[in-house]
Design brief:
The chain contains four helices and 17 strands. With 308 residues, the protein is α+β, with helices and mostly antiparallel strands. The strands form two sheets. The protein has an eight-stranded antiparallel β-barrel. A hairpin with a 5-residue loop joins β8 and β9. It starts with a helix and ends in a 5-residue tail after the last strand.
Length: 308
């Protein structure tokens, strides 16, 4: 118990000698005298600078990490992803998905509370997600409840693959630089490869306006060009409860609706996204070139008897 006391006494005994030596040295120098407090302050400053350097480096690393995630998230959101290939952990094709791959889609919306949706062409399944570096985590999904017949098996399989954690990577396509490829390795080591198609929102750099059109079954020759057939469309409005409140007058539409193919046999009500176009947007077949129209969903379809 006496040892700490001896050490303190020794330090106290030597302190006057150290201070005297310091004062002697300072007398031979143009600088201000160095005191014990100054020495402690210098040590503290050096220590703090070291901490600041570490913190700065940590901040730079975090910024780089966030930037990489943001870039990946933007790319994921800018494209509508269509299934290209699907293989299981043994590198064998997933037979329930491959035959219908062109209708298997994935859409990621980072601008709306990090939500995504996917479908095999029947029900739309939606879920929230988190992205950390290249790890995509999808929580429990919700789905519409239509009976899908032969697609039920494919729908169940896709939902199983999507839920949980996946590793994702986007690369330029070897065939088309404008069409990126998304590779997704799921929690059971299955691999889904998706081809990207630029979304309308990214293409037109604006948020679309939701509108509803009824399209008549019969198309008619356009007034300005009798050799061209025009769709006959009229605007429909709904209230907040989804009840139809008004129907406009039919008018001809000489343009095109992206994603919609009219068969001439059905009268249909379409939910569309209308985008304001810019001067450099080329819509060669669209007379109403001020806007671009993209099909969101066919919400009603009725077969029309051609003899009527």
């Amino acid at each position: 118990m006496n040892q700490p006391t001896v050490k303190t006494a020794l330090k106290t005994a030597f302190l006057p000698s150290l201070l005297a030596a310091a004062m002697t040295l300072s007398a031979c120098s143009d600088s201000s005298p160095v005191t014990a407090d100054d020495s402690a302050s210098a040590a503290t400053t050096e220590e703090n600078e070291g901490v600041e350097k570490v913190n700065t480096n940590d901040s730079d690393t975090t910024a780089e990490s966030i930037s990489a995630e943001d870039q990946l998230l933007t790319k994921l959101s800018d494209y509508r992803w269509i299934l290209d290939t699907a293989t299981d952990s043994n590198h064998q094709p997933i037979t329930s998905l491959i035959p219908i791959k062109e209708q298997v889609t994935l859409l990621i919306n980072s601008r709306n509370n990090h939500t995504l949706s996917y479908s095999v062409g029947c029900n739309t399944m939606g879920a929230s997600f988190d992205l950390e570096e290249d790890k995509l985590t999808i929580s429990e999904s919700m789905s519409t409840k239509m009976s899908c017949g032969e697609l039920d098996k494919a729908e169940t399989k896709l939902n199983q693959l999507m839920l949980g954690e996946s590793q994702v990577n986007i690369a330029a396509s070897s065939n088309n630089a404008a069409t990126p490829t998304l590779t997704q390795v799921t929690s059971d080591d299955s691999t889904l490869v998706w081809s990207g198609r630029l979304t309308s929102q990214a293409k037109y750099n604006s948020k679309g306006e939701t509108i509803f059109w009824e399209v008549a079954a019969e198309s008619k020759p356009c007034q300005d060009n009798k050799t061209q057939m025009c769709l006959q469309v009229r605007p429909i409005t709904y209230d907040e409860q989804g009840l139809k409140t008004s129907e406009g007058q039919y008018t001809e539409f000489a343009g095109s609706i992206d994603g919609y193919q009219h068969d001439g046999k059905h009268r249909e009500i379409l939910r569309l996204q209308r985008f304001k176009t810019t001067t450099d947007t080329v819509l060669a077949d669209n007379v109403d070139s001020e806007f671009a129209y993209v099909l969101d969903r066919v919400i009603e379809s009725t077969v029309v008897d051609s003899t009527e």
